[in-house]
TrEMBL record:
GO MF entries: histone binding; nucleosome binding
InterPro entries the UniProt entry points to: PH-like_dom_sf, RTT106/SPT16-like_middle_dom, RTT106/SSRP1_HistChap/FACT
Low complexity: bias regions: 80-90
Gene3D superfamilies per record: 2.30.29.120, Pleckstrin-homology domain (PH domain)/Phosphotyrosine-binding domain (PTB)
Role noted for this protein: Histones H3 and H4 chaperone involved in the nucleosome formation and heterochromatin silencing. Required for the deposition of H3K56ac-carrying H3-H4 complex onto newly-replicated DNA. Plays a role in the transcriptional regulation of the cell-cycle dependent histone genes by creating a repressive structure at the core histone gene promoter.
Name used for this protein in its record: Histone chaperone RTT106/FACT complex subunit SPT16-like middle domain-containing protein
Subunit structure as annotated in this protein's UniProt entry: Interacts with histones H3 and H4.
Pfam families in UniProt: Rttp106-like_middle
Bias-annotated ranges (Acidic residues): 410-453
Residues covered by region (Disordered): 70-90, 353-453
Family per record: Belongs to the RTT106 family.
Skewed-composition ranges (Basic and acidic residues): 359-379
Organism: Zalerion maritima
Domain Histone chaperone RTT106/FACT complex subunit SPT16-like middle: 259-357
Length: 453
């Protein structure tokens, strides 16, 4: 059974050792004359788990108020015992999960933007990544490596000097922004920003600091090395590739560099779309949203104006009792100059416009969930990549985009499509004319033969 959270109690009541000693005595096992000294506080098996849970709850609450940047009413609900809270998704780890783990690498003064906007020291252990402030782990920024589902390395737009965001998404959080009633007890994604330069002397700590120094030409090479060494293989870092997608709109701050993002609103929040190999990312406002290709049913467009248009992504979303549902997410005010790049170079190449291909993507997703590590056949991959058109040579997106033109063409072709060869004899006397012609030919032949005789 979990004991008192010694690290949290010392962090909260370090100036009041008398309170710590009183808590220790109150939670001491039967027969114990007194608890351990406050300066040697350590976990033990308690006599009253109810009291221990209460003390841990109080310590967690006070610590969150002292160190958290979010309003109290927005904080996640945690189990007071200090154990991880899981909702079938990414678990919320606590400082208790870190006990006994050695810090392999520490990178100091890193700018975290989500879940909290503040500079922290990021610490790596064999099982966790966590933020630390004043030597104490920061609640809500503790992640088990095994719980990370997606990771990204993306540029920060509209900055005079290049900056990059690292994004780690725990399991079940990629589409959490679509949920109307988001569950509590689920870890938020981690977003932290690094400059293009190299770390300053004294930035690195931990047992692997000397080795990490060999990869410290820049913050990017340092974090690529350290994250790749710990992240699950299926959560490898995803990056934007300007050779596959880039915006037609020139960046104001660095006009000579290609922009791999597209500015887009989600509701009233302005953000940026990144069209990646494995899905579409929208950031960097809360809630972040990553839509994997396997979760996209179809992509369409609306509110097409002279200078802007909106893009609607239909997403597979699990319903109650495992029912299949779809939910639409709309990204607005996208510059018209980016339409060809989005439509031709991404949507059509990925086959995202065709509902029939969506069934293939959905099947691939279900297969991956049921058979971890299995691969789709080459034909399936080809269809998922959207290299083939549908049976009539037209895609659903093209029909939607040129709806009016298609309607006119359909009207022109209506007579031809309704043509029935069985009704030739009733088609305004044409059959009679043909019969008369044949009869005349026969008469001529008969006359000619008779003349020869």
């Amino acid at each position: 059974m979990a004991g008192l959270n010694s690290q949290r109690l010392e962090a909260v009541f370090q100036s009041r050792p008398d309170i710590i000693q009183g808590i220790v005595k109150a939670a001491a096992p039967k027969g114990a004359s007194k608890g351990p000294r406050a300066d040697t506080l350590c976990p033990f098996t308690p006599d009253s788990p109810v009291r221990v849970r209460l003390f841990n709850e109080i310590a967690n609450h006070v610590y969150d108020q002292l160190n958290g940047s979010e309003p109290v009413n927005k904080k996640r609900k945690l189990d007071g015992s200090g154990a991880s809270v899981s909702n079938g998704n990414g678990a919320v780890s606590t400082a208790a999960d870190l006990e006994g783990e050695q810090i392999i690498l520490e990178i100091k003064d890193i700018s975290v933007t989500i879940p909290q906007r503040k500079k922290f020291d990021l610490c790596f252990t064999s099982k966790h990544l966590f933020a630390r402030s004043g030597g104490v782990p920061v609640q809500g920024i503790i992640y088990a490596w095994k719980d990370i589902e997606y990771s990204f390395y993306l540029p920060v737009p509209e900055k005079t000097q290049p900056q990059f965001n690292y994004i780690l998404m725990p399991k079940g959080t990629a589409l959490l922004g679509l949920a109307k009633n988001a569950p509590t007890g689920v870890a938020e994604p981690l977003v932290f920003t690094v400059p293009a330069g190299a770390p300053k002397p004294g930035t690195l700590g931990g047992s692997a600091a000397a080795t990490a120094g060999n990869f410290s030409d820049s913050f990017s090479t340092l974090f690529h090395w350290s994250l790749s060494a710990n992240l699950p293989h299926e959560a490898r870092l995803m990056s934007a590739n300007p050779d596959k997608f880039k915006s037609a709109v020139r960046q104001g701050q660095r006009p000579k560099e290609p922009a791999v993002h597209v500015k887009a609103f989600r509701g009233s929040k302005e953000g940026f779309l990144f069209f990646l190999d494995d899905g579409i990312m929208w950031g960097y406002k809360k809630p972040l949203l990553f839509i994997p290709l396997t979760s996209i049913a179809a992509v369409s467009y609306c509110n097409v104006l002279r200078t802007t248009f909106n893009m609607v992504v239909e997403v597979f979303a699990p319903g109650p009792a495992g029912e299949d549902n779809t939910e639409e997410v709309e990204f607005g005010m996208i510059d018209q100059a980016d339409y060809p790049g989005i439509d031709e170079k991404y949507v059509k190449r990925k086959g995202l416009q065709d509902q029939s291909l969506a069934e293939q993507r959905k099947a691939k997703k279900e297969l991956a969930e049921n058979e971890k590590g299995s691969k789709k056949s080459g034909d399936d991959e080809m269809v998922v990549d959207g290299e083939e058109a549908n049976a009539n040579g037209r895609t659903i997106l093209e029909q939607a985009q040129w709806e009016e033109e298609q309607r006119l063409q359909d009207e022109e072709d209506e007579d031809e499509e309704d043509y029935d060869p069985g009704n030739d004899g009733e088609s305004e006397g044409s059959g009679s004319d043909d019969d008369d012609d044949e009869d005349d030919d026969d008469d001529d032949d008969d006359d000619g033969q008779g003349g020869d005789d």
